[in-house]
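so ive been stuck on this for like two days lol. basically i have the seq below and the ligand is zinc ion, smiles is in there too. i just want the complex predicted, nothing fancy, no docking runs or whatever. if the output looks off dont worry ill sanity check it later, just need somthing to start from for the group meeting slides
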Amino acid sequence: MREMMTWVVVLSLFALFLGSVTDYLPFALNGSTSSVLAREGEMIEKVHKTEQEWRKILTPEQFAITRRKGTEPPFSGEYNKQDENGVYRCVCCNLDLFSSDHKFDSGTGWPSFWQVIDSQNVAEVEENGFFMKRIEVICNRCEAHLGHVFDDGPPPTGLRYCINSAALKFVGSES
Ligand SMILES: [Zn+2]
């Protein structure tokens, strides 16, 4: 009996350890049970490129975040404090993703939006970690990893799209 308890403790610690390191791994261990929740197969024409092609057009940081599900350190991204009017596009395929009209300062250190510019342009993927369930947000055209969406955002949607600056390209609306 005592031996069994020991195993339970050991296995729990191991699971905790795995859960905490998966965020930092360069590949999608924590996406192993992913399933696309919404908008699969809608009218958006997909963009597919090989890893080498992506590496050619992206910086190493952009590649690590969008193609390897990385996360930039909080308060480090160039758009965290950006408050000019304009549109945030996918850094990989230029699809319009977010508008400055829906941006707010969440205090988390990442650009945050309470709404997507067009719900067709992103897809949401359920991530089932060992102890944590999160909703990943990806570009619906090229499947770039953008960030996550949480349900603790401001009205009117109550959503908080927590997005990596490195996944975005801002285009100002002054012309
Ligand atoms: Zn894209």
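The two ends are 74 Å apart (CA to CA). Strands lie at 35-36, 86-90, 96-99, 103-104, 112-113, 122-128, 133-139, 145-150, 160-163, 168-172.
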